[in-house]
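Hello Y.,

Per our agreement to keep a running log of every chain we model this quarter, I'm adding this entry. I've kept the format consistent with earlier entries: sequence first, then predicted structure.
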Amino acid sequence: MGNLVHAEPAELLAVIRLRRGVVGECRRVSHIVPLPATGPIPTELVALCGATILPAQAEVLDGIAGMPCEACLARQARRTSLQLR
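Predicted structure for the entry above:
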């Protein structure tokens, strides 16, 4: 067996969008939402862009589908870039 070096828990990210009928089709964009690694899902989900979404109004996607939220993508790219430094 190899040695185990201290490992940081990975942040969980979900891709969600509002369900059909909650908003018009042009507002159903794919948001990137950080989730807690343990414990219950929060009562309000806050996307990287700052949008607040209620879990009951959201659908979880397998990946970015349809139109992505450009602000979420930009913020995730910046976060990834800062982590690589």
